[in-house]
Design brief:
Belongs to the misato family. By secondary structure, the chain is of the alpha/beta class. The protein is built from 6 helices and 6 strands. It is globular.
């Protein structure tokens, strides 16, 4: 097997990446339980080797999962209604006592509601056509689940911020240097996907080139050497 790990940086790249993963998902073939015998054996195989871009795993309930080999970066608020912990990895509440014995105050940001497209997918219905009015984020039309490790939010900047926009190349370059000094980004984000590969073929990088994400992606690329 020759696996490929995909790195996506920022809104523009994630819109593109969503189309890529949706296209990959469209090539999945599923066994029809009503077809048996020789007819089942001659079913048309998928033209895509999904093991290259997708990884098997085990969900929170012990069920098998199959998710993209991807590391997706975006700013705070850039993931829309997509949650880091999805339906396949939703942890169960064990009812354990809180570690902090005192009183707490919880502050929650306004919840972003799923798009009509996502609501239809969750309900098992035919999704409505996409329009510029119904697509607010790239996650509004994503048809695949991602592993929690795939979603990497940059908390230092907020999407569409007017006070501190994430725009200049140097800002991305500097942000990577600061975060890497604190967390070792490649070791934290990329290494788990690389180590689980049998024979890594390479990295697929999706990024803009003339803005802050270009600087961030360039530093990431250079650090992989």
């Amino acid at each position: 097997m020759h696996e490929i790990v995909t790195l996506q940086f920022g809104q523009q790249s994630n819109y593109l990446g969503t189309h890529f993963w949706n296209a990959q998902e469209s090539y999945f073939t599923y066994d029809d339980p009503e077809i048996t015998g020789e007819a089942a054996k001659v079913a048309e195989p998928s033209p895509v080797d999904h093991d290259v871009h997708f990884r098997p795993g085990i969900g929170a309930d012990g069920s098998d999962t199959y998710m993209p080999r991807a590391v997706i970066y975006d700013l705070k608020g850039g993931f829309g209604s997509m949650r880091k912990i999805n339906a396949l990895y939703e942890p169960e509440d064990d009812g354990g006592a809180a570690l902090w014995p005192g009183s707490t105050i919880t502050h929650r940001a306004p919840t972003i509601q799923p798009s009509p497209y996502q609501q239809a997918l969750d309900a098992g219905l035919q999704p409505p056509p996409l329009t510029t009015d119904t697509v607010r984020y790239w996650s509004d039309y994503s048809r695949v689940y991602f592993h929690p490790r795939s979603l990497c939010q940059i908390h230092e900047f907020e999407l569409r911020s007017q006070l501190n926009p994430f725009e200049a190349w140097g800002m991305g370059d500097e942000l990577f240097a600061n975060l890497d000094r604190e967390h070792d980004l490649l070791d934290r984000d990329l290494r788990p996907f690389v180590e689980e590969s049998d024979q890594l073929q390479g990295l697929q990088i999706m990024s803009s080139v003339d803005d802050a994400w270009g600087g961030f992606a360039a530093r990431t690329r250079n650090s992989t050497n």
